Amino acid sequence: MNKLFATTAVLLLSSISHADIIKCNFTEPFITTTYSTTQSTLTYDDASTGKSVIQNVSFQIKGPGAFELVNSKGQVLQTLTLNNQGSDGMSNNLYPYEVRDNKISRFANGGVGGCSSNHLKTKFSDENY
């Protein structure tokens, strides 16, 4: 019994220590999304309309380097690919994640952007397009 308790405690602590924030940037118009793994929320911050928060969003691993953010109805909100090729559409900065957002796909660079996290940072460049 003690062994089971210890194993459960280790798994719980390891999941807490990996809590992360994933922040994505889009251009035309300028929109930022922030996903919180601890709160299971996806926040949209649109420069023209303000903030909106979607609750109960799950982070799903689809395969090696492939992830989805899914709402409580099972709809895919964002598809993330960990390929170090993400772009905000405006700068030479390279983001660890390339993202396609289904909510903003009709604008904001076709819903394509770049994301970074607490643990995977953007590689900044001084040069712009």
Account of the protein in words:
The protein is mainly β. The chain has one helix at 2-17, and strands at 21-26, 31-36, 41-46, 50-54, 58-63, 66-70, 76-86, 95-101, 112-117. The model is unreliable at 1-17 (pLDDT under 50). A nine-stranded antiparallel β-sheet has the order 4-3-2-1-9-8-7-6-5, with no helix packed on it. The chain has one helix and nine strands, in the order αβββββββββ.
Q: Count of helical segments?
A: 1
Segments where pLDDT lies below 50 for 5+ residues? 1-17
Computed CA radius of gyration, to the nearest angstrom = 16 Å
Order of helices and strands: HEEEEEEEEE
How large a portion of the residues is in β-strands, by DSSP E?
Answer: 35-45%
Query: What does the average pLDDT come to?
Result: 84
Biggest sheet architecture: 9 strands, antiparallel
| Structural class computed from helices and strand pairing | mainly beta
How far apart lie the N and C ends? 61 Å
Number of strands: 9
Specify the helix fraction band.
10-25%
Strand order of the largest sheet: 4-3-2-1-9-8-7-6-5
Coarse shape: globular
